[in-house]
Amino acid sequence: HISSLSLSLSLSPPPLFTVGNPSLSSILDLFSPLSPTISVPAVSAACCCCCVPWPSSHSFYSFFSLFGRLGYSCFFFRASPSGFSSAKPATPNLPLISASLRNFQLNALPEPSSCLCGALEAAKRPASSGHDSSVWVLEPSRIYLEEELIVVQLFFRGMGRRPICTPSSTIMSAPLQSQEPASSQRKCVEESMSRSYGVPVLESLRKLRRHSFIVTDPYLPGHPIVYASEGFLHMTGYLVEEVMGRSPRFLQGPDTDRRSVLQLRDAVREEKPCHVILLNYTKQGWPYRIILHMAPIFSHKNGRLLHFVGAQKPLSDCFSMRCEASLLELCKGPSVLLGTKSWVDSIDSCHPPSDDRSSYRFSGQRKKKMKIASTILQLVIHELVTSNKLMSNGALCCRCLSEKAEFSLCSSLTLALNRIQQSFVITDPKLPGMPVAYASDMFLQLSGYQRQEVIGRSCKFLQGQSTDACAVEQIRDAIREEMACTVRILNYKKDGSLFWNLLHVAPVRDHTAKVVYYVGVQLLSGYPLLEDASRNVTPAISQLGAVGAVKVAVRSLQSNGLRRRSG
Amino acid sequence: MRTIQRVETVLSINQYDAENGKEPLGNCCAPGSSLPLFKFPRRLRFPPGDESCSKTEDLDWQKSSEFLDMVILAQWEDRATRGLFRYDVTACETKVLPGEYGFIAQLNEGRHSKKRPTEFRVDQVLQPFDPSKFNFTKAAKEELLFCVESGDSHEGEFYPEAPVVEGTNAVIINVSPIEYGHILLVPKITARIPQRIDEDSLLLAINMAVEAKNPFFRLGYNSLGAFATINHLHFQAYYLAVPFPVERAPSETLVSRKMNNGVKISELMKFPVRGIVFESADRLDELASSVGKCCCILQEKNIPFNILITDCGSMVYLFPQCYAERQACGKVDQALLGTQVNPAVWEISGHIVLKRKEDYERASEDLAWRLLAEVSLDEESFHELKIACLGELICGSPVGNEVVEGGDVSFLGMMLHEVAMWLEENCTGVDAKEETW
Fold first, then answer.
1. Which part of the chain is the GDPGP1-like C-terminal domain (chain B) (predicted)?
2. Which of A6, A69, A562, A563 to substitute to test the interface with B, most B CBs within 10 Å?
């Protein structure tokens, strides 16, 4: 019976694939008929291929599943006069294999309607070596032809292998998916870590670089990644500049379980730790499953949320979903940041259901993985928290003032407000002078001020000598009545220049139905509304849109808002 | 014929007072006139199959600018300042009930209209359109926010004044809103379609959810017999930046993505109402098709149902229900009836609007659970329904129905076997090198 054959063995010639420079002849060896073995760093695989008649389009899926069940991965290349070209599987969800091989030698000329079908099986580790005897399965391989180089990427599913051949950007001309963030935005991303923990933290985190973890900042627009470990970059196949400043959502794909994403979003919103099993995609589009442990980090000084840390540990998914779910259920330990002994203990005490033999065999791995992921998380958090403590004990810098006032807006509300592409400020009517609690990036651009110069100051700083007192009175009346109003008022930028501001002020209520903030949306007469200019959107619409978005955000996210309570 | 008495929800000001004198919407929607128009981008019309940019990239917020969001919210806020709503919904207290699921309760005394209860037939899910009754072409002109249509460019476009085409879809405000931004989506308003689901209208609703790019902008549908008020095809939608309890409930996979053209189908577990969950991050057309087929089955079997579209259009929940039927037969507990909660799609999802202060004070997850337990189909009927739906879906799909051609597979199998034999004979048993990771 084929599946029980352990075709283990390997040759030991030098590594076949290195980044950028595969040896051409050795690749061709791969595809000559019935070539016995190829040697790949760290794993040995048996490979065989031959020419077969072109299978019917509907059968592709059947073949893949058949081979999969037998423990093989297979690929198909269609014969064409110039060699072999890509075979596109019938069902769109299967990965696309594309390449062209030139100078391919076959013993027999391929028939026009034939294809090259190959199958590879990864070797089983000998049980005696003391390692667990799981099977690694080779995903359908990918081959790229780039000028004279043929690059083959073999990706192994399961067991957390990094891609054997990570195409560097010179070989793969993949377009950068993210736009270039504005330089000020980039500066914020780069400074985010050092601002809260001091510069030395980056060095100390390098000790953990083998592990995969990221740190995200919820106060920046889009909740971007501000730090990614080398292990993470290896696992996902991205370069550091492709990852910094982007929301981790780009790792998700069509097969990612939406509920896990929802759980994560929930935890971010409630500023709580969580752990999920998630399907992510590498840069090349290959799916891999991970256990993700995520936890918030709070400032030592004022208890405010600073960042979220996520540690990933890849999994092999050779067992049933039911086992996953029940295991997670059992492993729901108390949320802890430090002092994790109880957390680790609670995992140890998990007993997976023993009705399913296969699930029992793999559950040991799963538990181990969870423990590892959790431990990595603890280590990272430990580094960050100690660095933060050191920093807060040091001299107070003036930036901390703004951090104190921003304390009134929780991270999830800030995240929601950051999405609004308008110039506006949120002011707090409960405090004397109605200080500014939040100012959007566009407001800062418009007025010329820096964020720390604005937060906590009364909104009157935009007014000046020539400002019409009547307009100010109108606003004051509207606020007293808890009504909205629109006035045309003369304002001053930081540099002293004047501008006519079509200001719309509206009350904003939270879930208790009381007015908690006032939102002021500015409109500079003639100010180009960025994308809106070409979109036939009147200024009134933009302003009201911002008001609406603020109302929706504050209603649910203000302070404890509509968060779950333990009951 | 089974009926229940209930007070009609007022969705439009003209419903409240027929002789209002305001210009009815229907006349304005006639081709030749001009209305605001929002055009969906082209990518939503075609499945991303061969295209390199998939829907998942579009979820990257840095590229998107939440344009549809802004248009809806702006128009809504505008109507609010003009006083078109019966009350200010943001002035309604809301809270999350203690518990794991976090049911959301709202005290809304203004929603309840003072009209006399009318008789609603609950045993017929499909009823013919009755032009004498209120429908959305009779709504007031100011209640229309804008029309939506499929467009051709890469991004959404907005035109403050555009000539109306036949079969345009209207977005109208709900004058008794449950939450901020509560709107009604009326597909092909001038066609005056009765309240019944078909694939096209579902696809439109899903497209809208996708284009809004906001996971907290949800669309819902109530069939007749499941507390739809007006027999004119419409979806509801609003913004609430809170996860719904139903979204937190686990689910068990019934059919994987691969077997069903990219749409995963699962059964809702550990939730008082039994339901089916459809998930697809990228195949919108298939999603609409799967859900549409199941709805047709429900409509044929005359089972009332509710639909919830959430998570930017990638998750659709289908809830068959029987509360109205049970109410008509007198099987519902008087205490639950006393709260006067009509369990439509929002209530089933976990957002419960209460009329009386004492109900709001006493609200608990336990009460919500009890109420929703009355809504759900029992296990047997649900199981039957599940089988019927899955049968329809799987048999219809080319992959699912695939009888693997014996010839090809056996050939490959033979080849593989031969090769394996050869390898075993010819490989020397060199030990695999130990590698360290």
1. 245-392
2. A562
